[in-house]
Amino acid sequence: MTAPRQDPLRDPRFFTDPYPTYDRLRESCPVRRIPTGSGGHHSYLITGHAEAREAFTDPRLSKDTARFFADRPSNRDLHPAVSRNMLASDPPAHTRHRRVAAPLFTTGRVRALRPFITRVVEDLTATWHPGKEIDLVAELAVPLPVTVVCELLGVPEPDRRPLAAWSHDLFDATDTARIDVASHRIGDYLTRLLTTPHTDSGSDALPSFLHACDQGGLDQDEAVSLAALLLVAGHETTTHFLGNAVLALLRHPEALDRLRRDPDLIPGALDELLRYDSPVSVATFRHSTEDLRVGGVDIPSGFPVLIAPGAANRDPAAFPDPDRLDLDRDAGGHLSFGHGIHRCPGAPLARAEAEIALRTLLTRFPHTRLAVPADSLTWRRTRLTRGLAALPLVLG
């Protein structure tokens, strides 16, 4: 098995449509060594569904980035709150963080949030009317999850817009300096938020979060890192989930018409929409701590391992005819939220936000259409997430 000569995940065509690349790599071998970045570095990319599920639960694949880079020189300057969060740790540290995060997203907690989510969607769409041209990303897909997660953390309303902008910069794969600056702005802001008394906020969200962190044994730096993760991961992926889902439906009129005629089918359609165009294309960093074998391929110790849910969700061995959006498909085995102990705890909240937003769009504006040709849309240039820079629509 020979590695490609160039990083296939940096090809401009990959950002527009990663699935031909994923198909080619998977057909050759579902676990491939590929060049990543510059300087002759290599990683192992996992594109098969069965292999991805196996890798997600293998304890020999560590998420402790500090451990990996301890003896490797780096010119990066990420804020510790961003570089050392729950997603960049293994048990027992990961277990302590997750024990605090999980109660924020229980079924009961999300059910209680649904009226608030509905009000946010209604406020964001209050000025919409048939014939109006909107950018779904800027006017709904970004502000909705930002508003909800900021409400959970007690972030004052005037601070929410800059936080969303910094989070956007954090996923800019083309400019590492910009990423580092954004990480410090987020980390510094959240440090001030969590350490400055707010006696007149009128909300108990922040005190409740701080109390949960204290009860869970998290120190101040760990509380800041957890808040940063909830903020960034809690809105970026949901933004792409909603944008990708709307575009997929607009490009599949029969599926769109079914949901327009019966909006109660929307909750059951979410798994297939997540599978079809996953908002997480490549999962966050892992590295091998010892020699292991995945999918019949030997992975030596000390290598980065990239698990690609976007590729696994299109594996024909798991999902027949995977390039077709099929609302009748049992897509519950998709890996868009991950798998194992690192599965996204915020999945119930993301699903609720997407369901409420889609229901509003399809019931109030059932004849909405793309304002531009689909092939002219611009996609974010990042291999980690897959999402649109903008989604211009004409409401109808």
Automatic annotation (TrEMBL):
Transmembrane segments: none annotated. SUPFAM superfamilies: Cytochrome P450. Pfam families: p450. Gene3D superfamilies: Cytochrome P450. Keywords: Heme, Iron, Metal-binding, Monooxygenase, Oxidoreductase. PANTHER family: CYTOCHROME P450 YJIB-RELATED, P450, PUTATIVE (EUROFUNG)-RELATED. This is Cytochrome P450. The lineage of its organism: Bacteria, Bacillati, Actinomycetota, Actinomycetes, Kitasatosporales.
